Amino acid sequence: MPAVVDGELCDGCGICVEECPMGAIELNDKAVVDEEICTECGTCIDVCPKDAIVLE
Ligand code: SF4
Ligand code: SF4
User: Fold this and answer.
1) CB burial readout 31-46, b (16+ within 10 A) else e
2) How many CB atoms lie within 10 A of CB 14?
3) Domains in the chain: how many in total?
4) DSSP state, 29?
5) For a substitution probing ligand 2, which of 4, 15, 17, 39 has the most ligand atoms within 8 Å of its CB?
6) What is the pLDDT of residues 12-32, one digit of tens each?
7) How far apart are CA 24 and CA 5, in angstroms?
8) Residue nearest to atom 1 of ligand 1 (CA)
9) Which residues constitute the domain of residue 26?
10) How far is the CA of 38 from the centre of ligand 2 (A)?
């Protein structure tokens, strides 16, 4: 399963957008992962300061 952002925790900082090697995350107020592009690498989970992203 792709990475999933918890909109309650995400503050829209954009760090995950910059760090995703696939360019799979967009900011639309909150971070949004494109499930078709995400390779489940886990990078965004490691860099998110709010622990707002999980691999389900
Ligand atoms: S790094 Fe975390 S808090 Fe920042 S935009 Fe991404 S999901 Fe949201
Ligand atoms: S798991 Fe990897 S490919 Fe998927 S959104 Fe996070 S950083 Fe990008």
Assistant:
1) bbbeeeebeeeebbee
2) 12
3) 1
4) S
5) 39
6) 999 999 999 999 999 999 999
7) 12
8) 48
9) 3-55
10) 5
pLDDT at 1: 85
| CATH number for the domain that contains residue 30 | 3.30.70.20
What average pLDDT does this structure show over 6-17? 98
Long-range contacts from 38-41, C-beta under 8 angstroms, 24+ separation: 38/2, 38/3, 40/1, 40/2, 40/3
Q: At 10, list the tokens.
A: 């995400």
Evaluate whether 30 touches 7 at the Cβ level (below 8 Å).
Answer: yes
For residues 5 and 33, the answer to whether their CB atoms sit within 8 Å is yes
Amino acid making up residue 18 = E
* Contact between 54 and 3 (Cβ < 8 Å): yes
